[in-house]
Amino acid sequence: MELISRILDGSIAYNDRGEPVGRSFFGGRVSQDDRVDRLEEVSLLAGCSRKQLRAIAKITEVIEVPAGTVLARLGNAGEEFFVILDGTARVDISHRKRARLGPGQYFGEMSLLDGGPRSATVVAETPLRLLVIKRRDFSTLLREATDLTQNLLITLSHRVRHAEAGMND
Questions:
Q1: Is the pLDDT of residue 169 over 70?
Q2: What is the distance between the terminal CA atoms of the chain, rounded to a whole angstrom?
Q3: Which contacts qualify for 95-102: CB closer than 8 Å, 24 or more apart?
Q4: CATH class of 2-167
Q5: DSSP class of residue 77?
Q6: Is the dihedral of CA 109, 24, 55, 47 positive or negative?
Q7: pLDDT tens, residue by residue, 42-101
Q8: Which of 77, 59, 69, 57 is nearest to 128 (CA)?
Q9: Contact 118, 74 (CB under 8 A)
Q10: Which of 53, 57, 100, 128 could bond to 87 as cystine, CB 3.0-4.6 Å?
Q11: What does the pLDDT average to over 23-37?
Q12: Helix (H) or strand (E) holding 167
């Protein structure tokens, strides 16, 4: 929601084709093959075939944001999933709990899947180039590609089992 607010208030501008405008921090376009390669690194999508990853890549947008941009705010509604292509972001879970994310890492997956509020605040530490998937587009894709939905459910099930096993140690 924070990102959408920034777009609406003009601090992140888009042209009539829906592409971000303004200063580019990174050179060159991100091809479809590059998008698929980056999505292949996302553990949430580990069970997806190359064909399924291509379908997901088609609904991604590449955006660039300057350092200091708040991409997600704890407690706010979340409508996007982000994969970091270039740069670093800081994740603030609480005043004591922080993490740093870099290229190949992602955030926003829980809100993408359940539409619930953000569980952390994420701020760009450096200029960032991101792959962004909007919840609406992802939901449409899941309705159309039932095999993708099944692969995601299997991956999530494995993650929950792994997390539960770690709690029993």
A1: no
A2: 37
A3: 100/125
A4: mainly beta
A5: B
A6: negative
A7: 887 877 889 989 988 999 999 999 999 999 999 998 889 899 999 999 999 877 888 899
A8: 69
A9: yes
A10: 128
A11: 79
A12: helix 146-167
Q: What is the pLDDT of residues 125-136, one digit of tens each?
A: 999 999 999 988
Q: In this structure, is the dihedral angle defined by the CA atoms of residues 38, 44, 48 and 54, taken in order, positive or negative?
A: negative
Of the candidates 81, 80, 125, 129, the one whose C-alpha atom is nearest the C-alpha of residue 99 is 125
DSSP per-residue codes, 108-126: -HHHHHH--B-SSEEEESS
Can you give the pLDDT at residue 76?
92
**Residue 22 contacts by C-beta under 8 Å, 6 or more apart in sequence?**
12, 13
Q: How far is CA 113 from CA 20, 35, 67, 142, 146, in A?
A: 25, 20, 27, 10, 15
Please give the torsion angle defined by the CA atoms of residues 77, 81, 86 and 92, in that order, rounded to the nearest 10 degrees. Answer: 40
- CA atoms within 13 Å, Cβ hemisphere of 167: 6
64 CB-near residues (< 8 Å, 6+ apart): 20, 23, 24, 25, 26, 127, 128, 129, 130
